[in-house]
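Consider the tokenized backbone below.
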């Protein structure tokens, strides 16, 4: 099967950073993906890597502004901009990032970017102080508003000895992010119903049973899905998060309310992503008065609640259903058992332990995606990044399922 980048024309721009040596690996990886690669070097980048290396790996003559170069014509920037499907600038220095954000075109690479109307990706590489500089962060905001994709930077040690954000993302991750962004178009126009947060099961007028779920994962998935062009509705349990602008949100409290909301809405959607940590049990009898302190022991009887995602997958067989499994042990076995038992298309599992600060309440997580025929491990990262990666897998598998259903119908 052809990959998403096969036969794409990729223009790799290299600016003057010590990380320029990584461009060789990027060029090689792009070629292995089946891309047609051309390289544009700024004058300063020539201090860190040679044209010969890049020409050998890309299979094309390097385009530069070297005085001895005969590759420049009056309309070179326009010709290259028309040829390329994607522009990747890696590494991207603070100087070039600020220049790009403010629409400057004083060299070949920047003028090509000004003439380019498709997807631009940059992988910043700079000292932590330069990255955190207010001017640089203002440029980051401008680039995002201009729909220019920023990959990284990562946290770590730098050649200068400083430690912080500013390290260029690894070549492998850069390629994966570009592939992911191109896959994201598969969600454009699709209708996603997302549940998030905990539920609260009242015991008496002042007490309830709940869990440590913050809702952050579900909210990040909703944000990322919206950015990918999907139509999103969020059903949220009680959380301390701000509502998301331009995403319709229905707030519920108990598992029964969550059940009713999901079942009422499910028929209007293509994909259900159930990140909510829904209480498995609820008190049989609600006490209308507060349990008193003078009672030495309290006996409360609980009953099993409705398994919401199982009920949905059984009733709406055409709905692409994605569950979440927060486990404290035996993740692979428990997640796979739930995948089959609940008849889901996919389940995302993670080890969750509040005491170890894993999953619950944290901005970071580490998850494994299980489908009926594959297992994908996503290493520890911010939940915003994990959300994008989960949606990329969902987009690809959903598209494959729709194609298979259409084929069988014919």
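A designed sequence for it:
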């Amino acid at each position: 099967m052809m990959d998403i980048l096969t036969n794409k024309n990729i223009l790799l721009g290299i600016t003057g950073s010590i990380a320029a040596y990584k461009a060789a690996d990027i060029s090689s990886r792009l070629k292995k993906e089946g891309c047609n690669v051309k390289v544009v070097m700024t004058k300063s980048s020539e201090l860190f890597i040679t044209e010969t290396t890049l020409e050998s790996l890309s299979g094309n003559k390097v385009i530069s502004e070297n005085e001895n170069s005969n590759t420049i014509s009056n309309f070179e920037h326009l010709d290259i901009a028309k040829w390329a499907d994607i522009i990747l600038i890696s590494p991207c220095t603070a100087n070039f990032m600020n220049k790009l954000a403010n629409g400057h075109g004083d060299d070949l690479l920047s003028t090509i970017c000004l003439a380019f109307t498709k997807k631009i990706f940059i992988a910043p590489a700079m000292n932590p102080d330069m990255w955190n500089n207010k001017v640089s962060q203002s440029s980051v905001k401008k680039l995002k508003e201009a729909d220019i994709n920023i990959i990284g930077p990562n946290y770590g040690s730098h050649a200068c000895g400083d430690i912080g954000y500013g390290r260029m993302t690894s070549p492998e991750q850069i390629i994966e992010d570009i592939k992911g962004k191109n896959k994201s178009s598969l969600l454009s126009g699709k209708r996603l119903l997302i549940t998030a947060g905990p539920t609260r099961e009242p015991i008496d007028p002042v007490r309830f049973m709940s869990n440590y779920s913050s809702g952050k994962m579900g909210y990040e998935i909703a944000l990322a899905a919206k950015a990918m062009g999907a139509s999103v509705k969020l059903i949220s349990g009680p959380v301390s998060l701000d509502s998301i602008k331009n995403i319709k949100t229905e707030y519920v409290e108990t598992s029964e309310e969550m059940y009713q909301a999901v079942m009422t809405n499910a028929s209007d959607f293509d994909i259900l992503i159930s990140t909510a940590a829904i209480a498995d049990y609820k008190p049989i009898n609600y006490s209308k008065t507060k349990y008193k302190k003078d009672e030495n022991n309290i006996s409360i009887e609980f009953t099993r609640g409705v398994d919401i995602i199982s009920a949905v997958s059984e009733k709406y067989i055409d709905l692409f259903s994605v569950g979440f499994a927060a486990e404290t042990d035996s993740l692979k076995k428990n997640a796979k058992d739930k995948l089959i038992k609940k008849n889901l298309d996919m389940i995302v599992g993670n080890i969750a332990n509040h005491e170890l600060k894993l999953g619950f309440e944290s901005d970071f997580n580490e998850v494994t995606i299980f489908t009926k025929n594959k297992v994908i491990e996503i290493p520890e990262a911010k939940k915003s990044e994990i959300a994008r990666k989960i949606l990329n897998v969902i987009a690809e598998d959903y598209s494959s399922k729709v194609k298979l259903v259409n084929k069988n119908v014919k």
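The chain has two domains: 9-184, 188-284+300-409.
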